[in-house]
Design goal:
The chain is mainly α. The protein has eight helices and no strands. The protein starts with a helix and ends with a helix. InterPro entries: BRO1_sf, BROX.
């Protein structure tokens, strides 16, 4: 029941997101106040969902694991609870980073937020990979979802790094190099999105946003700064993670077995 509850919270959170939230149009744009309430509500719901999954992985499932059959669904695996905790946090961090971009926060800060999002996706993918033996079968769709989420977050971090280089450091050549790195990152998840029109649409929109930033860097490096494209992009900054699970406690009298 708790796993289903976490899934319901996550589904409610995703319903709060406006149609344009997966794609930022282009770095530094967007109405500062657009969708502020729904986005904040989405972050809260995702943090609550992460708290439910975290409770399952740390407390609920370990208490009843010995009583469960070996051949049990993935929803009753501790490793799946850990993976879903990271997924919900990564999604909450993505909304937080997107909102920071809407508010026209500093490009350096937004870059760090997207790096934090990327690391959360990577943590979820690593948890799933390290515990593959726990599963009878690992969902191919979940594996691809984690790969695409991580690639999009990293590409967005590189896009905002490019904007930071161009606008704040007068290094449009480095900015264009960061954009080219982001293009390469996006190409790695195109195959993972094969057969899913919604995933391909998000990747395509991100590629279009990225091209806007790349052309901006290209124009300024040629006509303003007279720079060549840097041989390599600057390193991404340290991650800044602003989300954590909201603690969950089952209703009084509900045991671990019932909650799990």
């Amino acid at each position: 029941a708790a796993f289903l509850y976490g899934g319901c919270l996550r589904a409610l959170a995703l319903q709060q997101l406006p149609p344009d939230s997966p794609s930022e149009q282009d770095a530094g744009s967007g109405e500062a106040g657009a969708g502020a309430g729904p986005l904040a509500e989405a972050v809260t719901l995702l943090r609550r969902a992460a708290g439910v999954y975290d409770w399952l992985a740390v407390w609920g499932l370990p208490r009843v694991a010995a009583k469960l059959p070996a051949d049990r669904p993935a929803e009753l695996l501790i490793s799946m609870g850990k993976t879903m905790t990271q997924v919900c946090l990564a999604e909450a961090q993505a909304v937080t980073a997107h909102r920071a971009g809407q508010r026209r926060s500093g490009a350096g800060l937004v870059t760090s937020l997207w790096v934090g999002c990327w690391e959360l996706w990577e943590a979820g993918a690593k948890t799933l990979k390290d515990n593959t033996a726990d599963f009878n079968t690992v969902s191919d769709r979940l594996r691809r979802f984690l790969a695409i989420g991580g690639a999009l977050a990293r590409a967005r971090a590189l896009k905002w790094l490019a904007e930071d280089c161009r606008a704040n450091k007068m290094q449009a050549g480095q900015g264009e190099a960061a954009c080219l790195d982001a293009v390469a990152v996006l190409s790695t998840c195109t195959a993972a999105a094969e057969g899913d029109a919604s995933w391909r649409a998000v990747i395509g929109a991100e590629a279009a946003d990225l091209e806007v930033v790349r052309l901006r860097c290209d124009k300024e490096r040629k006509t303003v700064y007279y720079q060549t494209i840097a041989k390599s992009a600057p390193d991404l900054p340290a991650p800044k993670v602003l989300v954590k699970p909201q603690p969950y406690a089952p209703m009084a009298g509900q045991g671990a077995a019932g909650a799990a």
